[in-house]
Amino acid sequence: MNTQSNGGPGTVEEDAAPAEQPLGSRAPHFIKRSRPLHVSWQVGVFVVGLAVVVGGVIMLPLPGPGWLVIFAGMAIWATEFVWAQLVLRWTKRKVTEAARKALNPKVRRRNITLTAIGLVIIAALLAVYVWKFGLAMPWNISE
User: Fold this and answer.
1) Residue 62 and residue 118: Cα distance in Å, rounded?
2) Closest Cα partner for 26 from 94, 87, 75?
3) Is 74 in contact with 53 (CB distance < 8 Å)?
4) What string of DSSP letters covers 38-69?
5) Which of 84, 12, 80 has the alpha carbon at shortest distance from 40?
6) Does the pLDDT value for residue 13 go beyond 50?
7) What are the tens digits of pLDDT across the range 55-101?
8) Rounded alpha-carbon distances, angstroms, from residue 44 to 21, 116, 138
9) CB-based contact 53:73 (threshold 8 Å)
10) For 14-32, what is each residue's pLDDT tens digit?
């Protein structure tokens, strides 16, 4: 049981961010020792990451988890490149902020209310359309 529950020293903050890994290459040490091997490793990581990102971009208009695959490609790049690590950190921070906002009860009530109002408006417009034109479409496509 925590005896220091007044927020004083010794309490653990629930919102404390976990320690982030240092930026830089995560290649094995034996690869980092040899400059030509490390450059080859970086080229390989870049090519594999590029193939995954291009596959994700192709999946955006097609059926498939496009954004998930793009972020997987970014994660592959982040194993070797600092710029990709920074992009992923920024993305994780923004997603966490959005999730925190979405779970706020006040925001959830507002979103549910706006959704309900929108559905009522759509139902009213649909009812007016059916009342005026019936269930038949106003155009004839059987010519």
Assistant:
1) 29
2) 75
3) yes
4) HHHHHHHHHHHHHHHHHHHHHHTTSSS-HHHH
5) 80
6) no
7) 999 998 888 888 899 989 988 998 888 888 898 889 889 989 988 88
8) 22, 51, 59
9) yes
10) 455 556 677 777 777 777 7
In this predicted structure, what is the pLDDT of residue 19? 63
In whole angstroms, how far apart are CA 23 and each of 26, 79, 87? 9, 9, 12
> How many beta carbons lie within 10 A of that of residue 100, not counting itself?
11
Q: How many CA atoms lie within 13 A of 59 on its CB side?
A: 15
Beta strand ranges found along the chain (DSSP E):
none
Q: Any idea what DSSP says for residue 103?
A: T
Grouping H, G, I as helix, E, B as strand and the rest as coil, residue 137 is coil
Q: pLDDT category, 107, cuts 50, 70, 90?
A: confident
Alpha carbon distance 30, 129 (integer Å): 71
pLDDT band at residue 135, thresholds of 50, 70 and 90? confident
Amino acid 33: pLDDT = 79
Cα separation, 31 vs 35, in Å, equals: 8
